[in-house]
């Protein structure tokens, strides 16, 4: 029971977890609609919880978000979570706020890599699961098989016996109905709300004890400053109460480093809004303001009882890139924040809310090593900074190695799941062999597609996604998640083709590009500004080639059909941040500005690059 505005209310806290594209955010839309959050005639955009512009563009959830509905006198706090493995840190962070999880599984695809990851975390915290096998009206749906696979997943994760008897619901593709069995058609989502109230336990905290709350996420207000969001674990709190903010550390009583202040504002979640409340009690998820030093994993307590809670444990990052000052000839043309100090401040600010990220100093004062969960995780950070007006350069991703107990070198391995038409299975396996992938399982669905499961070094996936889409003609799907650290797999083959490198500064001309496109794929269009050392295309041969893309046609007085032929250029290859991270080699960099993404060589002058290449060749032959 929690008090709000002078009256008591039953509370249930639940997170919705699933693999990417299994329908979490759309499902929350319908829960909000049927719980009466929207008026009947209210126009509401689809995926209303995906409020971030990047989330809307990409169709994925990046940040975990809170909402709340009321059902038959019970307040249900709902947390919508990301489904992509790279944002698993968001899921790990918010699971401490809830008492149950709704595990959404596609009725055709079944449990996917991220389903396994978040389910393991949820069961490890002792959360009560409710399973929803979604999209049962799909043409290729196999709900009975998927139900058995979910039970098999629970058994693999060594779930307790009562977890194996978790209630299972069956929503349709529109997420407007849910039924308790496949024989009975659903009418609305009432079975789901009733199951949450009946099976998810109420919060265990004592509302009469001394106040205690763990900060699970942060927000910012122009008027109130830093805001802390979390669940009240014990006691109750009122606006104006004196509260202690405890530093990070081991759980237990704290005597040093305590920041004392008062709660200036207190908010609870109601639908999509934050509602200001005078008081809140144990079990409710609230937003508090009044503390400058508030941070994720810190504990707020009663001043008389400074007892620290255990912090939020998040798995360590597995790949790393270097963020460096943009020192290209075009630096400062487009960006608003271009100095190394500004980039450094922004990266350390990101650590306040992005708990799966790590930023470290390097030997160079202009370079920082930034580590994350995957290329998409780091790519979203780069895209966000780029849109904010920052300019910087990024190196090729590298895996973070560890040392084993007997001194051996260990590297991260990923679980790779591929669904591909039978026709392209051979091409996929042929490409994964040199990348040191080891097949774990192969399953034929009987409908023309095959599911392949591999264990592969994380390095082996660098640059593979674009190859995979080409090999499968865009018909295959690929998902992966971190699995474990294992023995170093040895050297892997890199990019098989060289690049075209501009040999001078200037503006590209269609005449020059027309002569080059017969033996290369171009990254730029006519009229693009280039500089010496900038990568302008991909060579059809293994070696790099320096080219003059600003070469103009010599003008003469002769005018003939043969000499004045029209230059027909193919559209240049689109360079996105994710593609650039996969594509570049160790001697190359990505130049990121608010308007442009350029690829370049680390050493720009052509003569300097040749000297370095000759020196390396001498060392190799020595």
Short précis:
This protein is α+β, with helices and mostly antiparallel strands and 622 residues long.
Contiguous low-pLDDT stretches (5 residues minimum) are 3-7
Shape: globular
Provide the residue-averaged pLDDT: 84
* Helicity range: 10-25%
Radius of gyration: 28 Å
In whole angstroms, how far apart are the ends?
Answer: 76 Å
- The percentage of residues in β strands lies in 25-35%
Structural class: alpha+beta
Number of DSSP helices?
14
Question: Sheet bearing the most strands, described?
Answer: 11 strands, mixed
> What's the total number of strands?
38
What does this structure look like?
- This protein is an alpha+beta fold and 622 residues long.
- 22% of the residues lie in helices and 32% in strands.
- It is built from 14 helices and 38 strands.
- The strands form seven sheets. Strands 21, 22, 23, 24, 25, 31, 33, 35, 36, 37 and 38 form an eleven-stranded mixed beta sheet that branches. Strands 1, 2, 3, 4, 5, 6, 7 and 8 form an eight-stranded mixed beta sheet that branches.
- Helix 9 (375-387) packs across helix 13.
- Mean pLDDT is 84; it is low at 3-7.
């Amino acid at each position: 029971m929690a008090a709000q505005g002078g009256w008591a209310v039953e509370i249930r806290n639940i997170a919705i977890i699933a693999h990417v594209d299994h329908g979490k955010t759309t499902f929350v839309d319908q829960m909000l609609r049927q719980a009466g959050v929207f008026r009947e005639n209210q126009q509401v955009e689809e995926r209303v919880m995906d409020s971030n512009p990047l989330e809307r563009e990409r169709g994925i959830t990046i940040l975990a978000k809170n909402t709340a509905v009321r059902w038959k006198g019970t307040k249900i706090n709902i947390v919508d979570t990301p489904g992509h493995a790279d944002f698993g840190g968001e899921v790990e962070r918010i699971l401490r706020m809830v008492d149950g999880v709704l595990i959404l599984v596609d009725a055709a695809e079944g449990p996917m890599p991220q389903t396994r990851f978040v389910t393991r975390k949820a069961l490890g915290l002792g959360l009560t699961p409710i399973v929803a096998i979604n999209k049962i009206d799909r043409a290729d749906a196999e709900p009975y098989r998927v139900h058995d696979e979910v039970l098999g997943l629970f058994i693999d994760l060594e779930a307790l016996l009562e977890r194996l008897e978790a209630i299972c619901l069956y929503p349709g593709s529109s997420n407007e109905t849910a039924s308790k069995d496949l024989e009975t058609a659903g009418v609305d989502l009432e079975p789901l709300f009733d199951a949450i109230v009946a099976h998810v336990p109420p919060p265990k905290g004592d509302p009469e004890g001394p106040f205690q709350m763990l900060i699970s996420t942060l927000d910012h207000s122009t008027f109130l400053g830093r805001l802390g969001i979390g669940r009240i674990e014990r006691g109750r709190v009122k606006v104006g109460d004196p509260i202690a903010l405890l530093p990070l550390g081991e759980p237990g009583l704290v005597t040093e480093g305590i920041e004392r202040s008062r709660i200036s504002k207190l908010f609870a979640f109601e639908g999509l809004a934050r509602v200001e409340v005078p008081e809140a009690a144990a079990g409710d998820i609230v937003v508090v303001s009044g503390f400058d030093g508030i941070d994720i994993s810190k504990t707020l307590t009663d001043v008389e009882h400074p007892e620290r809670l255990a912090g939020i444990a998040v798995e360590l990052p597995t790949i790393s890139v270097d963020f460096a000052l943009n020192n290209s000839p075009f630096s400062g043309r487009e960006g608003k924040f271009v100095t190394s100090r500004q980039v450094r401040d922004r990266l350390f600010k990101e650590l306040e809310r992005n708990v799966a990220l790590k930023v470290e100093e390097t030997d160079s004062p202009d370079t920082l090593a930034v580590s994350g969960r995957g290329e998409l995780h780091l790519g979203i950070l780069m895209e966000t900074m780029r849109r904010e007006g920052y300019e910087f350069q990024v190196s090729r991703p590298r895996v973070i190695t560890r040392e084993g107990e007997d001194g051996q070198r260990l590297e991260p391995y990923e679980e790779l799941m591929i669904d591909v038409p039978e026709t392209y299975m051979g091409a996929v396996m042929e490409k994964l062999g040199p990348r040191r992938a080891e097949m774990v399982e192969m399953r034929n669905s009987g409908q023309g597609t095959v599911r392949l499961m591999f264990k592969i070094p994380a390095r082996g996936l660098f640059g593979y996604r674009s190859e995979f889409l080409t090999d499968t003609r865009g018909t295959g799907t690929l998902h992966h998640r971190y699995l474990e650290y294992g023995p170093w797999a040895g050297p892997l083959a890199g990019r098989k083709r060289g690049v075209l490198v501009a040999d001078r500064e200037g503006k590209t001309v269609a005449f020059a590009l027309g002569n080059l496109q017969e033996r290369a794929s171009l990254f730029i269009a006519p009229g693009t500004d280039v500089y010496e050392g900038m990568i302008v295309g991909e060579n059809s041969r293994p070696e790099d080639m320096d080219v003059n893309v600003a070469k103009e046609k010599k003008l003469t007085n002769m005018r003939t059909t043969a000499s004045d032929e029209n230059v027909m250029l193919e559209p240049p290859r689109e360079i996105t941040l994710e593609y650039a991270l996969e594509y570049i080699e160790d001697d190359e960099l990505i130049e990121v500005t608010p308007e442009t993404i350029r690829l370049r060589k680390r050493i720009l002058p052509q003569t300097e690059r040749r000297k370095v290449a000759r020196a390396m060749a001498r060392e190799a032959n020595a």
